[in-house]
Amino acid sequence: MTGVAAMRLGRHAYLNDLSPLAGHISRNVTTPCDADELRMAAGAILAASRDVLESSYRGRCTACGSWAELEWLLWGETVACPDCAAPVRLWDAGFDRARGIMPRLVRCNACKAEFSKQSASLIESAPVWARVSCRSCQRSSERSPLHSDVAVALESDLMPIKDWYPRVPVRNDREMYLRSALHIRGINEVADFYTRRNLRVLARLWNEILTWPNLRARQALAFAFTNTAWHGTRMRRFNARGGQRPLTGTLYIPQMSVEVNVARVFAHKIAQLGRFYEDWPTDPGRVHVHTGSATNLGQVPDGSADYVFTDPPFGSNIFYADCNLIGEAWLGQLTPTAKEAVVNRSLSVAAGGKTVNDYHGLMAEAFAEITRILKPRAWATVVFQNTDPTVWAALQDAAQSAGLTLEQAAMLDKTQHSHKGYKGRSGAENVAAFDMVLNLRRDGISRPLRSALVREERIAQAADFLRRHLAHLPPIGSSVEADRQRTLPFMYSLLLGAHFNGDIGLEAEGFSAVRTISSANFESDGRGHWYLDERRSRPDPAKHGAKKPISV
After folding, report:
1. Of the residues 46, 255, 265, 443, which has the fewest C-beta atoms closer than 10 A?
2. 3-state DSSP call for residue 337?
3. Are residues 412 and 478 in the same domain?
């Protein structure tokens, strides 16, 4: 998207990413395509695949009795009660259909015991709900699955797949395989992320795309396909209000999985791309896309860049090589994990995992390249966030050792947070949902951070800083924006920004430190919002050194 912004502003940009999928996306959003040619090609491909599409997504309309098109089929799990081993169908045992969420505890109808979903073993996954679109009565409706729905699904399981599909293994040498316990879901290769039906349809569409004669149209068709292939996995979650999609930033198969009609997803993506290409700027800047490591930007001359924007991996937060695996498997090119700047928490060093020191080394090489290509006194912006102080220290040291000086920090509120981001806002987990924007300069004047204070003084200073912040906010419930500013992720990022800008001396000690400071000085409403307790007296700054230090 940095390239899209530069192009539309008439600026020239050089985009670099380690991931082949990132390069695939970047080229397709920065290279024009004839929208009419794309739509015509997609229509021809869907027509050529009509036989497999019609046989795969046959449904029955219960309103008029005619054959209809299956839009999606929801698969729900049945688990064994840990107490009595009776089968418990999660769809019936408390699933909130209005909000599309599972309760924390599930009740067994046989023995009335309550248990967490994680403590129960899987028995089977079967259809529990469906949506069909009828051409005869021109209506879409949701209903319970019919025998015919199950029969069509079973028929697809027994039919061979004649077209090529990726057989890339997914093993325990990947972080997300371990974190998400994918072996429990029967994942041994990329193909296992799909139902047999969707895998067959995707394989046919991909085969038709690869034989399309026009190169640029073929590239854009492949762009629509990789997005479709992600949506067509078993990772797609149910949302009663619509907009089902897989979780981003992870490989995760939910207990309520939506098997979507991938032909409809593909057609929708083509329509979006058609509108996008029709809105192409009249005088765009030139964009060059390169796939490779940021530790070697050899194609960029020394001192030639006016500005660098980078959004590196946030330590151990997201493993992009794993998350991109599905799209890259179809493209036939995988991210080289040896060059991925991450910190492994589940994968051991012996199995190829990386430590904070490894992360520091890769980041230092990348920052050295940034310094090399920047013009004298030019700026670089780094978007970053982490709750681990050792990762922050690695990032800071890597930038400083490369000759980049931090001159200003700000907070980036992305508004749309990930699943874990919302947990952070509620206070359930130590998740920093607001990113930091660090503005660095080549050959800048070094400004030491205020870290000379003893630790107790820094903590007291941070508490006073947050106290002033909370004092200026309206009461809880009077403003959505103000309530967001009462959450730990916001206050954590606020303190980081103040620290980097030299306003306070708190080191980036980690999210848990901010939680401890808040617990010791403020009150919580139990929903992740912090406020001042008027019964607590405001501490005298002159006596900070005499106060009993807070244990962090």
Report:
1. 443
2. helix
3. no
